[in-house]
Amino acid sequence: QVQLVESGGRSVQAGGSLRLSCAVFGSIPSTYRMGWFRQAPGKEREGVAAIASDGSTSYADSVKGRFAISQDNAKNTLYLQMNSLKPEDTAMYYCAADFRWYLSPLKSDEYYYWGQGTQVTVSS
What is the separation of C-alpha 28 from the centre of its chain, rounded to a whole number of angstroms? Predict the structure, then answer.
């Protein structure tokens, strides 16, 4: 069983930065995908960034060059560094994990384990 706990979300002004963290509890096999997703009110959940066990990363076009996903295996923690935040980045951000490393990195329906989310609000 795997549990994911997100933290770091808060209100910030446009142009600011935030770092989200996702603590991972439980056993993770040697091959996996982990990702960050977000969902704004009235919108579908969308993939933001993902990282695979081989270190490869994927990003949504809307965040390329602004967001960076990383992991600290020693701390069992996944991070999302968010820079140059925009009001349209406002959403609930979720951490997700799956052991089927070969599936699409940014498709939410191909992730099994989910955290409860952390709210990010960007004001103009």
Answer: 17
Residue 60 tokens read as 């949504």
N- to C-terminal Cα separation, the chain: 40
CA 55 to mean position of chain CA atoms:
15
Amino acid at 2: V
Percentages of the chain per state (helix, strand, coil), in multiples of 5: 5, 50, 45
Residues 6+ apart with CB under 8 A from 43: 91
- Give the integer Cα–Cα distance in Å for 102 and 123: 37
Q: Helix count (H) and strand count (E) of the chain?
A: 0, 11
**Confidence tier at 73 by pLDDT (50, 70, 90):** confident
pLDDT tens for 77-110 read: 999 999 999 999 999 999 999 999 889 999 999 9
How deeply is 89 buried, as exposed, middle or buried, from its count of CB atoms within 10 A (0-12, 13-18, 19+)? buried
What is the dihedral sign for C-alpha 94, 54, 66, 20? positive
